[in-house]
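Saturday, quiet lab. Running sequence design on the structure tokens for the scaffold JK sent over.
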């Protein structure tokens, strides 16, 4: 996978972290559940998988079944969230995630995920990762990524200006949301590269975190 060829130095006052594909590899369960959903609705599974990463489930359904009532999408989404929360088989950390989160202890950072509280808790626990103290989940926002609302709320919760935040994301929807929020975006993993993040890394082993005396977070990326 192409990635930033030489280390890039970024500075931030806070980091905003996506979960699925960024901290946690949940691709196995996402594939299982969404391909079953695609089959039930007579849709091509490969095409469905191009849409669903990064978005809340009902937002993906609205793209894939544009004529279906919102209420039906929300009900379907609730059932799928329950399925996803119960299925953690194959959920593991993205390489380097545990050390990365440990390095952020005491520094301003937040989880900004399209998962709800139950799902984000289940997946972080399954991967053996600590949950950040500040979490923006599906319940926190009125609009799913690629809308920037979640990242802007994360910045506000931390008391940091959007321009002083660095986002870590893997999906097109998430990268677009971070960019729309006016933030620098580090793309993590193979999905990220084609969506032109500011910097791209294979995984979180390619990120080093340093705290400076003035409270700035210094990132060596690549």
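Result came back. Writing it out in full:
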């Amino acid at each position: 996978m192409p990635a930033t060829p030489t280390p890039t130095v970024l500075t931030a006052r806070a980091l905003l972290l996506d979960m699925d594909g960024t901290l946690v590899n949940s691709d196995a369960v996402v594939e299982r559940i969404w391909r079953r959903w695609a089959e039930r609705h007579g849709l091509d599974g490969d095409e469905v998988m191009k849409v669903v990463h990064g978005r809340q489930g009902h937002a993906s359904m609205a793209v894939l079944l544009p004529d279906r009532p919102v209420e039906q999408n929300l009900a379907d989404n609730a059932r799928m969230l329950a399925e996803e929360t119960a299925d953690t088989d194959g959920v593991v950390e993205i390489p380097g995630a545990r050390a990365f989160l440990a390095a952020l202890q005491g520094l301003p950072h937040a989880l900004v995920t399209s998962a709800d509280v139950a799902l984000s808790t289940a997946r972080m626990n399954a991967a053996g990762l600590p949950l950040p103290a500040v979490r923006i989940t599906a319940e926190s926002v009125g609009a799913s990524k690629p809308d920037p609302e979640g990242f802007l709320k994360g910045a506000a919760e931390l008391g940091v200006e959007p321009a002083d935040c660095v986002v870590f994301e893997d999906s097109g929807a998430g990268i677009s949301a971070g960019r729309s929020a006016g933030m620098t975006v580090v793309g993590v993993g193979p999905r990220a590269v084609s969506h032109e993040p500011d910097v791209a890394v294979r995984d979180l082993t390619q990120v080093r975190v340093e705290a400076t005396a003035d409270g700035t977070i210094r990132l060596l990326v690549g």
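Notes for JK: The chain has a mean pLDDT of 94. The two ends are 12 Å apart (CA to CA). Ask whether to fix the surface positions before the next round.
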